Amino acid sequence: MARRQLSPFNLAFLDIMFCGFGAVVLLVLLVNARMLSARRALHQDLRGEVERLEQEVRAARDVLARLRDSSQGMDREIAAARDASASLLAVIRQQEKETGNIVRRDRAVRVEIRRREEALRALEADRDRTRAKAEAAQESGRHVRRFEGQGHRQYLTGLKLGGRRVLILADTSASMLDRTVVNVIRRRNMDAAARRSARKWLRLKKTVAWIVANLPQDASLAIYRFGEHAESLAGESSNTWVRVTDRERVNAIMARLDAILPGGGTSLENGIRAVAALEPGPDNIILLTDGLPTMGRERPRARLVSGDRRQRLFRRAVQQLPPGVPVNIILFPMEGDPVAAALYWKLAVQTGGSFFTPATDWP
């Protein structure tokens, strides 16, 4: 078989074809490589975006979880608020109910107050009428003994005359004859009429009469005198206390006081001891004196008593006072006894009484 001859044209065409095919393959390879590179870049970009989106999803899930927890907490708070609101509404309703009851009670109380005020006004008016009648009756005859000063003066003092049992303790020693030592010695040697008419002694008796005349009607009275010794002016009666309204016995006591002649030393201790022995005891003491004591329970051996000794005698005497009883003191000052006023004033303050030094024309 004869060999086929190759044509040069055919070889060139094949070369051209192979070269073109190779160029196409190369082009395809180049394009594919660029596409792979672009695909890898895009894949990386997409993976980064996916990761970013996943992070956002995770963050959103966390936020959603927190919001869900917060929502549950808010739900619980809302439920608690609803319960508290319900409790508060119940309390408010109870308060409104109680307020209504209070308002009703307040109205009832106001009505009762007005009713009682009217009753009180009626009682006050009745009291005023009764008081007016009593005062009118007292003006006509409330005093057991009548006492009038010059020009019918009304005597206003700081003396406390109240009490159920009022005791008057009157100093009847020789010093009551005058306010100076020289005149006391001189009058002490005079006759009985001159001693009874001593101005200072008359003032003491008038003062006692004024006190008796101004005591409350429901009070009981006892009058004691003291000099070297103390005694009741109630006489032989076993009952020392006398009703102020018992005119006969009161007049008898005043008559015994009027018959006394001042004399002797001053033993305040004996006077107070006699008062302290009373049963029942006084609840008000009115002491009329002119100075500090000059003796204790017994007459002193020395004729002269120093000022210090008299102060000691005074302090020892006041220790015998019954506790809790006010002592009202009327002092008729004596010459040469400057400490007496201070000590008697202190005694009045300590016992809750009053201290009074009358003017020369009182009563």
Keywords:
alpha/beta, 8 helices, 57% helix, Rossmann fold, 7 strands, 2 domains, 363 residues, 7-stranded mixed β-sheet
Description:
With 363 residues, this protein is of the alpha/beta class. Strands 1, 2, 3, 4, 5, 6 and 7 form a seven-stranded mixed sheet that branches. Residues 147-156 have low confidence and may be disordered. Helix 6 (268-276) packs parallel to helix 7. The longest helix is centred in the N-terminal third of the chain and has 134 residues, at 8-141. It is built from eight helices and seven strands. The protein folds into two domains: 19-142; 150-356, Rossmann fold.
What's the gist of this structure?
With 363 residues, the chain is an alpha/beta fold.
Secondary-structure map:
Blueprint: H1 8-141, E1 165-171, H2 181-188, H3 192-196, H4 199-213, E2 220-226, E3 230-232, E4 242-243, H5 247-258, H6 268-276, E5 284-289, H7 307-318, E6 327-331, H8 339-351, E7 355-356
Parallel strand pairs: 1-2, 1-5, 5-6, 6-7
Antiparallel strand pairs: 2-3, 2-4
The radius of gyration is 61 Å
**Succession of helices and strands:** HEHHHEEEHHEHEHE
Coarse shape: rod-shaped
Helix content class:
55-70%
Number of distinct beta strands? 7
How many domains? The number is: 2
CATH H-level superfamily of the largest domain: von Willebrand factor, type A domain
Assembly type of the chains comes to single chain
User: CATH class of the largest domain, please?
Assistant: Alpha Beta
